[in-house]
Amino acid sequence: MIKALRDKFNASFTKEKYDAYMAKLENLHPGALDFRNAETPVFVPKEFTAKMLHACEDIIDVIVDPKFLAMTERGIPENVKVPNESSHTEFLVFDFGICENEAGELEPQLIEMQGFPTLYAFQAFHSELTAEYAELPDNFSPYLNGYNKESYVQLLKDILIGDMDPANVILLEIFPEQQKTRIDFYCTEQLLGIKMVCLTKLIAEGDKLFYMNNGVKTAVKRIYNRVIFDDLQKQEGLGEIVDLTKPYDVEWAPHPNWFYRISKFTLPFIENPYVPQTYFLNELKQMPADLENYVLKPLFSFAGMGVVIDVTPADIEAVKDPENWILQKKVKYADVIKTPDEPAKAEIRLFYFWKKGWDRPVGVHNLARLSKGKMIGTRYNKNKEWVGGNVAFFEKP
User: Fold this and answer.
1) Rounded Cα–Cα distance for residues 370 and 233 (Å)
2) CB 54 within 8 Å of CB 73
3) Cβ atoms of residues 78 and 292 within 8 Å
4) In 3D, which of 114, 110, 125 has the Cα closest to residue 53?
5) What is the rounded distance in angstroms from the CA atom of residue 63 to the CA atom of residue 71?
6) Which secondary structure element, helix H or strand E, spans residue 99, and what is its range?
7) CA-closest candidate to residue 261, choices 59, 396, 123
8) What does the pLDDT average to over 294-322?
9) Which end of the chain is more exposed for a tag (fewer CB within 10 A), N or C?
10) Where is 68: in which H helix or E strand?
């Protein structure tokens, strides 16, 4: 996005440098990096960053509004509603596409948001190694609002562990060692000293939860939740597992209900030039005449599953539960990242943390994803190079 930096990076790129960089990433936790890492980071000018942050603040205004809980209650499916909900999520992410408007100018457009964690620990290591690999200028940083690696990790530690013994805090996931994001789980244990625990190994006794920690039955007092309930419901052969919808004497970070409250479900409530117009399908009185300029998305799915890109009236008629679908104005991703062959599109995921006692969350870090396919994601980028995950480096204001 910054021509001088892009030209310099591309001119100095060699496969040998990339391979050496990848070896360092792989060596963080050998065998755990299970997604493609792009050959390049994204260099973001300060004006573009300011637009993304402006949109985030408008969205956060909606989230901190006292009416937000009532507005989003329907967004939580009854069969996955978990008791003892916290007053706010500890973690949010906002995904912005680097898009082109009708005037041909680059602008961010919000694609999705989640009240749920992402690769927080991995990115602390990843962005450091990538800065070295990219020979990053001093006036750029992967962090926001003055954070750096040390203060970022400390904030993550304050939120997840606080004054607890790390042995009483677990990262909960379903078969964590098999997940594509497992490198982040290993990095979390490395940074914070908390163990990843499979839901199938969680022990319930009355309203207390326990896990086996090196052969010792240990109380669980706080759960760093990485279980996506939509995913959990698709799993087969799990046997008898703890029912997380029962009330347990445990703190959640974040509480599972926030995965649904801050999600695609929230988009119709947002008004901002960098948030595409979005409607609940059941509330549309009349279908747009230019239906081809919209995307149809199910509310309760993840990783892009079920999304209809080229919408037709027949697609709309086929929806049996319109209250669980949204129609979102299509955005035009810009072919913005110059690569040795075809240019790549990009998304930037901003990380926001919300510490207890704060009035609102604060932007702290990011990751980026590059694509040459129709959508961002592995399945659309098979056998392509200069695609996959990486990091954005923001020009300092």
Assistant:
1) 30
2) no
3) no
4) 110
5) 10
6) strand 91-100
7) 59
8) 84
9) C
10) helix 68-72
Give which of 48, 6, 35, 107 is closest to 371, Cα–Cα. Answer: 35
Spatial distance between the Cα atoms of 241 and 227, rounded to a whole number of angstroms: 13
Positive/negative CA dihedral, 183, 260, 323, 56: negative
Question: What are the distances in angstroms from CA 380 to CA 35, 39, 180, 370?
Answer: 13, 17, 16, 11
- Token code pair at residue 231: 């995913």
Given a contact cutoff of 8 angstroms between Cβ atoms, the answer to whether 130 and 391 are in contact is yes
To the nearest 10 degrees (0 to 180), the angle between helices 182-192 and 149-160 is: 90
What share of the chain has pLDDT > 90, as a percent? 83
How distant, in Å, are the alpha carbons of 115, 258, 262, 362, 389 from that of 359? 16, 17, 17, 10, 32
State the SS3 of 14-35.
CHHHHHHHHHHHHHHCCCCCCC
DSSP state of 396: P
Per-residue pLDDT tens for 338-394?
999 999 999 999 999 999 999 999 999 999 999 998 667 656 677 789 999 999 999
Residue-wise DSSP of 294-350: EEEEESS--TTTT-BSS--HHHHHH-S-GGGEEEEE---B---B--SSS-BEEEEEE
Tokens of 106: 């680059």
Q: What is the mean pLDDT of residues 2-19?
A: 96
CA dihedral 132, 138, 141, 146 (to 10 degrees): 130
- Looking at residue 128, its amino acid is E
Residue 185 tokens read as: 């789980």
pTM as predicted: 0.94
